[in-house]
């Protein structure tokens, strides 16, 4: 089948920079999946995205859908003809519905009899007919929270659409999309090339835009050009290094069609302000990259990316320097003003700020968190006094001028202001560490005081919100409780803290006075343990391993993690499948015969068969060996040792009838199996694991 390249471009007013890449990715996926569903063969799919355009090019696109055989079954043969062999109403009705005569039908034999069948070949539709539909479907499915209309058009999109290209080879597909008739003309840079440009074929698209239109249409190429240019200018003009924030790089890429990096300066006096405040001001408001020296110290420089080649770059630089100066001056003013008031003198300012209607103010929360952090600190070998102090100061920077202006600096500025006030170094660090980890993979608190406050803050929110029946739903989690749960688990596991979730939640529940839901601590613990599932799936650990441990409901995260790692290691052993199957069989037998009422005491005088005598002795030896290991939490070594029971267990089930006629012998064998199963249950319910077929 013949192939041609295909191109669709949508020309718009400036698209939202933070949405450009997601829109481009979704548009590209939509076109590709539409082609797959239509059964049309194609090669590489290429995305293009710039501030005023979204485009997709499909290489080697077949010029039509393939023809496909169609088979439609009608009535049974015995119902299709009367006794004289004439068509019945059932047959004529079926033929009429297909627009054919009965003599055009075939018959087919099946194991359920003979049937009338219609067979034909459905001719595939030409690609030029299908593409406008696929493009419309892809555009309609884009993740656009709020669409807009413009002019007299009823068409809706994220921004007004002003031109469209739709080419199959060098042929224009003129079927309207987004209320416009497509052509083969695009538009260049708004200032360098404010005119229409002809795109002869899809393969010429980015070449025409680059060489004639001053537009680099490929988002990834433009992104790397900006990165390289920013890094190069920092090295060349300052001997320093530009710090590239990936999200900022994406945003700057989405703001520029023809990027030109330029370096500017600001007054050195502003370096007295914490670097984070300067960076936030430059990044959030101006989209500048900052520069550091070889030893990581911030330099009084910034790099902006202009969307044009200026004949006088110094004018552009000067303009940016004039814009950034008042921003940095504001940051310096806020910093100087904030330091005149101690954080402890701001505590009362938290009283009017509502945390949650039923759970009180930020001040109320701070009091609860302080009490909880004190208990946690004592439990992990830290200083309860420091933890309580840090928790009471933890939210005070929320009412400082700097954080009111730059909300992303909460905690960071608290640490600076606490140090300025002469607070204990660990208290100051905890004011920043309380928010760690801020996102997946982020750093954890480095100090034990920071750990205590970070855990206490999250547990207080979890218990309080569950306690007033406001847990997260499938789509809403306004207080970030899922993230809070994972944060607590990570801190406890990775910092190896001896904390029990049940105890933590009960401590937190005792501090709340407005909780109305029953068994809140249990509910929150169950919710947090469920978060382990995704945590381990991300590490490539089988869900059955998590379920095997979860069945025992260990509530100490560090212990839970050790069990999971031990079961995962056990699962790799050659004996694992058979022992999992044996445990499942044992569990079923014990459940049917009384479950918890069955004891563990084995009467050796009642052992009869060689296989059961051997198994009983092996279980006794293993119990002596692994019980001390369980006490130490060395689950991996214990399970590895228990794996040696596979052969005696297999022999027992092959040679011994558990349900003996003699009541005493039967009870003794059940007790032995119960003891066997309970050894494994000290770690997990391995009967949940996949078993040998």
Automatic annotation (TrEMBL):
Matching InterPro entries: DALR_anticod-bd, Gly-tRNA-synth_bsu, Gly-tRNA-synth_heterodimer
Cell compartments where the protein resides: Cytoplasm
Known catalytic reactions: tRNA(Gly) + glycine + ATP = glycyl-tRNA(Gly) + AMP + diphosphate
Major subcellular site: cytoplasm
Domain DALR anticodon binding as annotated: residue spans: 585-689
Superkingdom per UniProt: Bacteria
Keywords: Aminoacyl-tRNA synthetase, ATP-binding, Cytoplasm, Ligase, Nucleotide-binding, Protein biosynthesis
GO terms of molecular function: ATP binding; glycine-tRNA ligase activity
This enzyme's EC code(s): 6.1.1.14
SMART domains according to UniProt: DALR_1 (SM00836)
Enzyme class at the top of the EC tree: ligase
Family according to the record: Belongs to the class-II aminoacyl-tRNA synthetase family.
Subunit (UniProt): Tetramer of two alpha and two beta subunits.
NCBIfam families the UniProt entry points to: glyS
Listed name of the protein: Glycine--tRNA ligase beta subunit
Organism: Marinobacter azerbaijanicus
